[in-house]
Design goal:
heterodimer, A: mainly alpha, 10 helices, B: 323 residues, alpha/beta, 11 helices, 38% helix
Chain lengths: 270, 323
Amino acid sequence: MISNQAGFLSVIWSTVEKDLIMKWRYRADLVGDLVSSVLFIGVFALFATSYVFEVLDASIEVTLLFFLTGFLLIVYDSVVLWTPLNSVTNDLYNGTLEYLYSSPNSRLGYFIGNIVAAAIISSVVTVPAIIFISLYFKLNGFAVIMMIVTLLAVLLVLIAFGTMFALLGVMFRQVSSIAGILSMLFQFMGGFLFPIQSLPKSIQLVSYFLPYTWGIDLIRYYTIPGWIPLLPVFTEWMLLLIMGIFLWATTLYLIRRVEKYAKKNGLHLI
Amino acid sequence: MQVLKADNISKSYGKKVALRDASLTLDSGEILGLLGPNGAGKTTLIKILATLLNKDSGTVNIMGYDLDEKPNLIRHLLGFVGQDTERSAYARLTPRENLRFFGALRGLSKDEVDNKINRYAEAFNFEDLLEKQFMHLSGGQKQAVVIFRSLLHDPPIIFLDEPTKGLDPIAAGNIRNFLKEYVLKENKSMILTSHILSEVDFMADRVSLINQGLIRITDTPLALKESVGATDFIELVKSEVPSSTYDNIRALEVVNSVKIKNGKSKEWYSFGVDDLFTGTEQIIRIMREDGVKAGFKQHTITLEDAFIHHIGQFKDEEKRNDK
């Protein structure tokens, strides 16, 4: 009489499979993503020939590498911030979230599944970019591995961020505009496009509380020869870990609270 | 055997009271129709029972489990179909892919879902549409997919919120025939809301009438109809019946009530009769004797009549109470 319990991994797997099938049916989007990433790289190359960051005292190659590593995180930032929020918004609108919330399954699995699928889809952009960076700048094996490991670590931390945004979407309409503003702020303050050192001191202080800052600094440490990290590398890894633990603990707590809150108030469409 | 018991459920959204001490029960193998005007609280009640909304007060026991204590366990026992099902599956996935995904959220493997599909494909006319994208299906086909989704995990209790809303009569008929047979054969229990009262009359074993968040009456459809008074009516166009003829008809023993009903363009006398055959014979005889030729029709009471009658009574009572 009692049906099976859908496990955490099984929910992730089925959500990933569902999202990949749907994305495959929107192949034009994939092509668009690929074209836009090539354009991005081109634009960054142009920037690199025109901009000299005084604080870096860098060559054109280093500046280009600075931008490209920032670009990698911009892609993942979009994936983790927008994907769960878009999924929740669409599923609320479609009524599929009602099914999720009336089923005994892992809510976290659903959020993560959507993000993992988007991360896999975004590899259409990131993998060529990583290959380009590795070959063009002649990175050694260790640098390539550490770049990928750091990217994955940052992605893992950012999933918690993205899930928090999605939870806001469960409670309130029109969260997208707030997410857009925050995403842009994070990109500027996290040092994606400008060196942290070139930002005003007060903004630098805020930057230190963002996981992006440490993620991008570590990636640049492993890929850009002579890059001086903001703090000792071990400390940066620890900060990333502590932020990750804090964000995940908060997210797990919020997942339960938000469902209770939404079901009490009948918010949005639930 | 009782599978669901809800006692004194109340729910407010801010100052707006959606449910006031609503109570109902559901037996094994039973279909309970939940009827009420728009905004009466039907959907709120169904969503509370389906664990989609939290109640403010009251208790719900489903198959021996308390809703507050074991919501996750109770979710295993429930199938739920909400409103607006046209959009409640993934448009770019086929019905099979949708059902496999939603089945996975219920812990079902692809094979288990496929076996279910094979078992019921004929009843749902699924054969030709399993590999079409959901967005290309008709309204009835989409509805069938969403209803089928609620049955995937074989729940003993199913909640359906207006399951045939917006469907053509043939599609709606197919769905209600399947559901009634399914409940009967598989010994399931179902709570159904609908504004199509003939549907509820056909499907439901009992009907609860809800108005302004309060369940006012629960009874069988027949008993609800009989409680109106007469079950058969003979109706005459009022302007074509002279007062003397009206008096003669009203005096007949077989006539037990009379009401004036508004039609599209005219008013009608509606004479409630104890026996349709005798009443028709005697009224026609009086009209012949008086040389009256008036618009004439017979009408057997429907659940819709009973609904209008009772809801009207509730509203009158509430107006009196307000005064």
